[in-house]
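Would you kindly consider the sequence and fold I have copied below?
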Amino acid sequence: MSLVQDRRISHFHEAARLGSVRAAADFLNVAPSAVSRQITQLEHELGMPLLERHRRGVKPTEAGERVLEYYRQRLAQQEVLLESLQSLKGLQSGSLVLAIGEGFIAGLAGPLSRFSARYPGIELKVNLCGTNEVIRQVVEDEAHLGLVFHPTRDPKIRTHVSRPQPVCAVVNPQHALAQQFGAQEGSRRAAGEAA
């Protein structure tokens, strides 16, 4: 696959994405015959058809879907590389998309505004969503970072930082939980004073 020319695979990608060779040609500003020729050469190099041609347009075959997945991964890796190179230039420009669970936003307002003040050339976008949507956005490269409470395990996700958080309950002072935890707290204080 490393021998596949970028132009051929990009022409194929646009035809599959737009649903026709003519639409891909218009998008790429080339003749439809040039797009068709590049796709035919790509199919010949790989030894299998990548598009099903119909009256209403084209649709990727199963092999075509695999090539498209490879190409999307390459584009995502290229984006990661370009962003890491941007970071070497001192975060002068670029974009950062955060997918954040709603419970975090109040605590992040200060750090996010300090980040924006320190790096004004970085476009910062915050998507507020539930845990599953945060994970989906990170997996599908719609967000660069995600922040959630107790995420489900996913082999496509890498955790950079994890912190335990206490769980607090607000109850009436007469509630059994308040009395139970009040008694435990009193015992801890008495033990501390005795020591």
